[in-house]
Amino acid sequence: MEFGTFLWTTLGAMLTLAIFSFLYKDNPFYKFAEHLVVGVSAGYWAVILWHNGLVPNLFERLQDGDWYLLWLNSSRPWYLIPALLGVLMWTRFSKKYAWISRWPIAMYIGIATGVAIPLEMANRVNKQLYATMSNIHWSNFFGSGFLDTAAGYSEVIVFIGTIAGLIYFFFSKAHTGTFGVIAKVGIYILMIGFGASFGLTVMARISLFIQRIQFMHEDWALVAFDKTNPNYSGWFPAFFWLVALIVIGYIIKEFIIYLKNKDKPKPEKA
Amino acid sequence: MTNKQDTNIFNRMMSIDRRWVFLLLIVVCVTAYFLPFSVPILVEPEVAVIHEFIDTLPPGSIVFLAIDYDPASLAELHPMTYALLEQCFRRNLRVMCTALHPNGPSMAEAAFLAVADSCRLDKTYNGEFFPAREVVNGVDYCFLGYKPYPALVILGMGTNFRLPFPSDYYGTPLDSIPLMKGVQNYDQTACVVNISGTSGTEYWISYGQGRFNFPLALGVTGVMGAEYYPYLNSGQVFGYMAGMLGAAQYEKLADNPGKAIIAMKVQLYAHFLIIFFIIIGNIGFFMDKFKKNREGR
Amino acid sequence: MKRQIPIFLVFVFGVFMVFQYFSPHEASEWIYKFLMDWIYIIGIFAMALGIWSLIHVSYDKIKHKRHDWGYSVVTLAALFTMMFFGITGFNENGEWGFYFMTQEGLTNPMFRNFFNHILVPIETTMFSLLAFFIASAAYRAFRARNVLATMLLVSALIVMLRFNPYFGDTFGFYMNKTAAWLLNVPNMAAKRAILIGIGLGMVGTALKVILGIERGYMGKG
Q1: Which residues of C touch A194 (CB under 8 A)?
Q2: Of A50, A111, C33, C139, whose CB is crowded by the most CB atoms within 10 A?
Q3: Does residue C34 form part of some domain?
Q4: Residue A100: which of C5, C210, C211 has the closest Cα?
């Protein structure tokens, strides 16, 4: 790794620590990093939308025209229509003309809902219902081994669970009597589902933190002391220690403040 | 002010300051990370089927990789992308890629560059020797880039890739890219693998697989992990990997241990800690309830 | 005029798209291709609205010296720096310059560095904070108060412990089997019920939009 790249990685490490400082309390470092990322991210979007959007999909198609003729003389002038509709979107910023922006929005909504109806019906509803009902293998009801997912009883549970879950969400009828009993089964099944989701969410969130540990160790700290690196110089560990000292200094400062205020009565929380 | 009843041990068990929880989590994770041990990874069939599918494709087939995530879900999904890309390039498969999340293109690009670097070395995976090779943009892979409205882009690509993407990420017209010669739409691709941290997955299922019937495999974040089992069961999705565990399983299958396998050991102890806290909280809750009941009598 | 034309447009395009799905005639395919081609362009302009409104809000904050206005300077500076790097770069001959109509900016090393070393670390770390909040939330809220809460808790515990090597071969095997069964059977049934519910809801809403009953997309006025 070259020293320039290492400096960038060090910046990444500092920003990582700045964000983590939020766990202790909100502070200027965190706020700086937070606002920085909003700007960088929006700037990135702008560039991507320009280079991956407007240029290839619009400007290159109109490029054989002349701008002073508004590209009307290009070989594919019909691309001016979506461009015009797109520009009309911007009337949203005017109070007087904001209603014009409804036209392109209406066109988009029309297309999006139109394609959604048959596809969502087929893929989310029909295929799922079909899979729920057609897959029960009565001949293999008890399956093989412990808790077999392919066994008939599992498929019956899926069938009952799905119907019961749907009935739970049906609020047009009071959940009483037989209907109430089925709805009750439904909520039990749903709770198992939510529990599984929660377990996996815990795993997901933790892995994000682990990735940061890996980054700080493998991509930053190890690189700082990697003498096999052909570009290695004393500046690598120097920068590592510089950041480390800033962090340690910040912690000591906060600790001193804590010690000073320890004996003072805390303000009552509302 | 606090009275005597509020400060009993069970009450305190229920209300540890959250900063202690945070600190303990950091200590446990960092310690586990530096301890030299590994967790055995059990491979589930829904992950194995993806590896098997890609492994048995004839050389030269096109794998369509849809990278729909931003840095926020990089931790879980980058290992999947890396392992999968390396496997494709080692098997001499060609890869097409889109990034339909606005913050995604540069990450997909970084993955291609890193895997191309790794392919410059001789490696042995699962006992099979793979000589070093050069992975060339335009020949071995084609990176299409980003367009807004994923649902409509997926539909448009079913007609022709050139409809939403007249040129690739780097501005080269698709017609002048060697890989794209004769490639019109999904019919020329062997499968689509969607690695996603967004609702883009729903679109790939309904608007992509549902309309154009290509084999679709999913790699999703843990948060979305429980959601897509219905599609696996109904056959709309042929393979499925979820979260860091899914990524670790894929790394194990590909015999290409990376960040996910190392992460699993930390994951394990973090889970232990969280379960420990849940237990502490529940003991406090029940004992407090028990005590209050008795005093109430 | 202000409301009728949008309703009419939604109806026409919506009905056309539905029919196009069921009757892929040559003529309808032709129109379909055009519409698809156009919609991306409209979409880009719509996305740009978001960027513009960020600039507007930040500028407003600085102009009126609102609370924490200094950070808005950071946001704007970062935004314009990124844009600058995005339209500058080195061409094939290594010459630096402004490139508006070609994509040199995307391979500009500074553009990549800003993404890889500023955006990626901050965004990943911000989301990794959730690890701490979910740990604290699990500790505070996960109480076995009643049967339903207990089921939620047990199911979460099984999923969290499934790759545990300390259970030994036998118990570990059963634990894994249980977790896989739980995810593939009851969890799947629950998620399928939700999925079908959402699917029906979406189709219902889409129909209401096309028929002009649901007009929320138009906003007020």
Answers
A1: 152, 155, 190
A2: A111
A3: yes
A4: C5
Which chains does A contact via 3+ CB–CB distances below 8 A? B, C
Which residue among C6, C45, C185 sits closest to A103, beta carbon to beta carbon? C6
Residue located via tokens 């969400």? A169
Q: Does residue A203 sit at the B interface (CB-CB below 8 Å)?
A: yes
Widest pairwise Cα distance in chain C: 73
> B45-257 adopts what CATH topology?
Rossmann fold (3.40.50)
- In this structure, the number of other CB atoms found within 10 A of the CB of residue A226 comes to 14
**Residue A251 burial (CB count, 10 A):** 12
Residues C60 and C82 reside in one and the same domain: no
| Cα(B211)–Cα(B234) distance, integer angstroms | 15
pTM score, whole prediction: 0.93
B16 neighbors C139 (Cβ within 8 angstroms): yes
- The answer to whether residues B263 and B249 touch, using CB atoms and an 8 Å cutoff, is no
Answer yes or no: is C201 within a domain: no
Among candidate residues C141, C164, C180, the one where a domain is terminated: C141
Q: Are residues C36 and C15 in the same domain?
A: yes
Nearest chain B residue to C39, by CA: B152
C61 and C21 within one domain: yes
User: A86, A104 in Cβ contact below 8 A?
Assistant: yes
C-alpha–C-alpha distance, residues C21 and C2, integer Å: 30
Task: Choose among B22, B149, B226: nearest Cβ to A193.
Answer: B226
Shared-domain flag, residues C59 and C106:
no
Q: Is A128 on the interface with C (CB under 8 A)?
A: yes
- Express each pLDDT in C163-217 by its tens digit: 777 877 788 888 888 999 999 999 999 999 999 999 999 999 999 999 999 888 8
Which of C113, C141, C169 terminates a domain? The answer is C141
Q: Which is nearest to C157 in space by CA: A202, B62, B205, A34?
A: A202
Chain A hits for C10, Cβ within 8 Å: 106-107, 109-110, 113
User: CA-CA distances (angstroms) from residue B128 to B96, B122, B124?
Assistant: 25, 11, 5
The domain tally of chain C equals 2
Burial of residue C16 (CB within 10 Å: 0-12, 13-18, 19+) is middle
For the record, the structure tokens of A39 come out as 């700007």
B114-172 pLDDT tens trace: 999 999 999 999 999 999 999 999 999 999 999 988 999 999 999 999 999 999 999 99
What ipTM was estimated for this complex?
A: 0.91
Please tell me whether residues C3 and C43 are part of one structural domain.
yes
Range of the structural domain that residue C93 is part of: 78-141
Please check whether residue C157 lies inside any domain of the structure.
no
pLDDT digits (tens, 9 = 90+) for B234-248: 999 999 999 999 999
DSSP assignment of C79-108 equals HHHHHHHHHEEE-TT--EEE-SSSGGGGG-
Q: How far apart are CA C77 and CA A36, in angstroms?
A: 8
Radius of gyration of chain C (CA): 27
Residue C181, in any domain of the structure = no
Residues C2 and C42 in one domain: yes
Q: What is the DSSP string of B36-75?
A: ------PPPHHHHHHHHHHHTSPTTPEEEEEEE--GGGHH
How many CB pairs lie under 8 A apart between chains A and C?
Answer: 416
